[in-house]
Amino acid sequence: MFPSSTAIRVEHVTQRFRLIHERPDTLREVFAKRFKGKSSVHDFEALKDVSFEVHHGEMLGVVGVNGSGKSTLLKVVSGVYAPSAGKVEVNGRLASLLELGSGMHPELTGRENIILNGLLMGYSKKQMKAREQRIIDFADIGEFIDVPLKQYSSGMYARLAFSVATEVDPDILVVDEILSVGDANFAAKSFKRMMDFRDSGKTILFVTHSMQQVLQYCDRAILLEAGRLVIDGAPEEVIERYAPGTLASTSALASASEKYLASLRE
Amino acid sequence: MTDLLRDSFKYRELIWALAMKELTVRYKRSVLGFLWALLNPALFMLVLTVVFSTVMPIAIPHYAVFLLSTLVPWTFFSQGATYAVESIVMNSDLIKKVAVPKVVFPVAAVVSNLINFALSLIPLLLIVLIMRHPFYWTWILLPISVIALSIFTLGFGLFFATANVYYRDVSHIVQILMNLWFYVTPIIYKVDAFPPKFRWIFRLNPILYVLNDFRMFVYYGQVPTALSILGSFVCAGGALVIGYWFFRKHQSEFVFYV
After folding, report:
1. What is the predicted pLDDT for the residue at A39?
2. Which domains does chain A have, with CATH numbers?
């Protein structure tokens, strides 16, 4: 189906940011800085020489503390940031769920946002119209679909966004922590859908703080620390490194959750 | 330049949706809704017409038509350019979270104002009929100048939208520039009002040619000289080449500055 078995290849990616408080915002500040002879440049590396690969049909978990570069990594893979150095190669159609409300407009209704969101991802209006009903059904937001998004709860936002991103049937799905705002029922439904996705040979790149989810769903995981990839391996290995001594309790949680999911499937 | 066309074509539905969003969000929660897009220019034109035909008559015959034949396209330019200049900063949410060609935002800003412009041609036609000014066949040639003016507006917008990402002062400077530009352009007056030896100065104004063509089509009912039409496209093409070159050079950095 694909010319290469690699869905995502990240090679020596470094992402540099100019820190915002050091950046002159207005001409006055520029002249002031010039006059005082101060340099306004202060670079920060959010990702440092990161390399890894994700194969088709694989679900890769990305873990790390806040500020370790997880979200930056997803944005680089999604094409929002052009990396300062290195290369990103993506084989296949990619859909990403980055932050709550990305690609949505608060003044437009849910129905209008489904179209807008699809167009932003490069799909046509016709393609989105054809999927509209299935998206609404899965998101399960009832009559709110014709209400402006600004009146949605954050859970409804997340459900609609997840529903759009998965219903467009991408080859690769990139998901930030967005799912943590949904309720347990929707989370279970979402994970079931992601599992079906993976089983049909699609690729998922997934950021989470839940070690249980890593253990339960991911084939492999990577750990980021201050922008560096410190370990790329089996979920157990990564958990042992990230949160030493918690593997036993995590696997107990994972198997309990597995039973719950199985009961839902019946 | 080919990627400008390719992106605009590939994302044409998105551009249209963004342009319509611009218009509908503006009129949301008003009773008359989208009708304001028609009423606004109509009432404005009516006021101008009444003022200049009764309160403050001017020696130029049918002055309201004379004025509006260039004021309506000027308004499209000044508003379209203003929207385009702010479009990147205004859409920072999308730019920071979605991978989409950035050029769709300025293009959508111009398109939404183009729709407004098209709507304001209806009251313009009504004024022409009310004033008993001849309705010339040359109206059908208007699209030529609309194309030139749209290209010029986009080029101008792309250039200053890029600058505005780095220094937000730019959008304010553009506002002032627009005010100044309005008065140095023969919109409310004729070039003939100036001594012949100074008239060449007006030719340095890149928007003069296209506005002059609009006036020829609507007010005089004449086909402008080939030189005038050529001039309008040279200025428009020049603006687009410079504007898009500057935009393209910096667009991958926008996400870090918005």
Report:
1. 54
2. 53-84+95-265 (3.40.50.300)
